[in-house]
Design brief:
With 164 residues, the protein is of the alpha+beta class. It is built from 2 helices and 7 strands, in the order E-H-E-E-H-E-E-E-E. The protein has a 7-stranded antiparallel β-sheet with strand order 1-2-3-5-6-7-4. The protein is globular and about 45 Å long.
C-alpha cells in the first residue's frame, strides 16, 4: 500500500459533522468505551470516500495506562475506529443489510507512521477498495495535523443477525 494520502483533505469542508455519534451508533453495535468514532465530516458515495473523526482526549480510559507519563492512543484502537467508520459507510451503501451484523474480517499492510497523543483530533479517512453485496474492503488512514499517522487495508462482511 503506497504512502500517499487517500484524499486531499484541504479541498473538503470538514468543519461540520454530517453524521453525529447518535446516528453512527443507531447503526453500529459498539457501545461505551468501544464507540470510537465521534462523527462523520464528509461522506461521498459517488467518490467512494468517507472521513470521520475521533477526539483523542487525555481523560480517556486508556490514557493513564498506555503509556504512563506519555499517553499514546493505541494503534489497535485506531484500526478499530476505522473499521467502525467503514462499517457505517458500508451500511450507507447497502441499506438492504440495515439490520445485519457486520464482522471485521481482515487487516493488511498496516503501518504506524507517527504517535497519536492527546489532546488532538484524529481524522479517519476511508476509501472503498472493493465492494460487494455482503463484503467490503477499504483503504484507511489516520491523519493528525495533516500528517498520516497510520494506514491499513481492512475488510469486513455481513454475518447473520443483529446490527453491527
Amino acid at each position: 500500500m503506497p504512502f500517499r494520502p487517500l484524499a486531499d483533505l484541504a479541498s473538503l469542508d470538514l468543519s461540520t459533522p454530517v453524521f453525529g455519534r447518535e446516528a453512527l451508533y443507531e447503526v453500529l453495535s459498539q457501545q461505551g468505551r468501544f464507540a470510537l468514532v465521534d462523527g462523520v465530516l464528509h461522506s461521498d458515495l459517488e467518490r467512494d470516500l468517507v472521513v470521520g473523526y475521533r477526539e483523542v482526549r487525555s481523560d480517556e480510559w486508556w490514557a493513564k495506562d498506555h503509556i504512563p507519563g506519555r499517553p499514546l492512543f493505541p494503534g489497535t484502537l485506531m484500526v478499530e475506529a476505522s473499521a467502525q467508520l467503514a462499517t457505517f459507510d458500508f451500511h450507507q451503501r447497502r441499506p438492504e443489510v440495515k439490520d445485519a451484523f457486520i464482522g471485521f474480517t481482515g487487516i493488511e499492510n498496516t503501518r504506524f507512521r507517527a504517535t497519536v497523543e492527546p489532546d488532538c483530533r484524529l481524522l479517519l479517512v476511508c476509501r472503498v477498495a472493493r465492494l460487494r453485496s455482503t463484503m467490503f474492503t477499504y483503504d484507511v488512514q489516520g491523519v493528525v495535523d495533516e500528517n498520516i499517522v497510520f494506514e491499513s487495508r481492512i475488510s469486513g462482511m455481513v454475518l447473520k443477525g443483529g446490527k453491527g
